[in-house]
From TrEMBL:
This is Hydrolase TatD. A divalent metal cation 2 binds at residues 131, 159. GO terms for molecular function: DNA nuclease activity; hydrolase activity, acting on ester bonds; metal ion binding. Keywords: Hydrolase, Metal-binding. A divalent metal cation 1 binds at residues 7, 9, 90, 207.
Amino acid sequence: MKLIDSHTHVQLKQFNPDRDEVVKRALEKEIWMVNVGTTRKDSQAAVDLCNAYPEGVFATIGQHPDEREVFDYDWYVKTGKHAKVVAIGECGLDYFRVEPHLFNEERERQIELFEQHIALAIELEKPLMVHCRDAFSDVKSVIKKQIADMPAEVPGILHFFTGTKEDAKTFLDFGFSFTFGGLITFNREFDEILRYIPKERILIETDAPFVAPEPYRGKRNEPSYVIEVARALAGVRKAPFEEVCKQTVQNAKSAFGI
């Protein structure tokens, strides 16, 4: 393969009209993908999508911190044993929309849910796919308590990383990798952190159907657009494009055990 979209959601309803065409468009360009679950239902849909293609399509299973459904641990254990389930998540903490008067209650709920995902990752020996928004201190604290028991190779991946260099250093010390998406094609605020993180720890993503890169801003995102993220990363790091493609593929294969 030429590229791996390390975090996408082709199983979501936005792709109902043309899902097969979207997947085939990426695979024809030698772009593989990891479809990330955010609820039990779309985690199952991500797994079903894996089963529809002989290669190049993988899944993660988990529950986004904003989702309030009951976390069916036993179902996730059973489903997580599928050979093409390569990570646990999207899980983590997100305090962005939490009302101040509900903060303590919501913080406690999200941390408990996150800890269940960590237990699942440990049991299945698969990395975490971590979502973190306005919650880096707590995410670091929760992981630190259990990092010794987490998968040794790559304990997890920080999806759509927006943290500071200090945050990045902590997660680097934990052994985590980082994904970056379409935002880096038009927002220069990430240039410093992209140069700071070692090339061996950077993965690329689309987070499709969200946050399309230039020149597709305002349109539905899709895995084939991850090439624009690779181009942007090469530009920021002043590295040859082909080298960035090769390195990010190698990083994704290592992180996910592909």
